[in-house]
Amino acid sequence: MRRRQESPWLLAERKRIRTEPTPGVAHRLADGENPIAAWRIETGLSTRQLDRKTGIAAHSLNSMELGLIKPSREELEKIAAALRVVPDLLTLAEPGDERAG
User: Fold this and answer.
1) What is the DSSP letter of 56?
2) How far apart are CA 45 and CA 82, in angstroms?
3) What is the DSSP letter of 92?
């Protein structure tokens, strides 16, 4: 059976790197959800699937989503690449951070 070819627009959209939150992610963030979890859920990935895409253990990803550990810059870049977002969208603005207000 031959696979149907996707439109060029759809292919480009799938490859696009997001630089702003989607409405769904913005809603989750407003509800206090961790940005990594919000984007992972938005993209439809399980923690185990993200583990396979990034090489970061699922239990470590879970701890990051719960705020128990802070991801390194390298880990953020791997997660961002897998979720197709810029790394800055995966961090919470800290009090006093120029993005916080």
Assistant:
1) -
2) 10
3) P
Rg (alpha carbons) of the chain, rounded to whole number? 15
Domain that holds residue 47: 23-84
Structural domains in the chain (count): 1
Q: Is the pLDDT of residue 10 over 90?
A: no
Q: 90: which 2 tokens?
A: 């995966």
The dihedral region occupied by 44, where left means phi > 0, alpha psi between -120 and 50, and beta the remainder, is left
- The CA distance from 6 to 91, in Å, is 33
Q: What is the pTM of this model?
A: 0.77
Domain CATH number, residue 42: 1.10.260.40
Please name every residue paired with 18 in a beta bridge, in sequence order, or none if there are none: 85
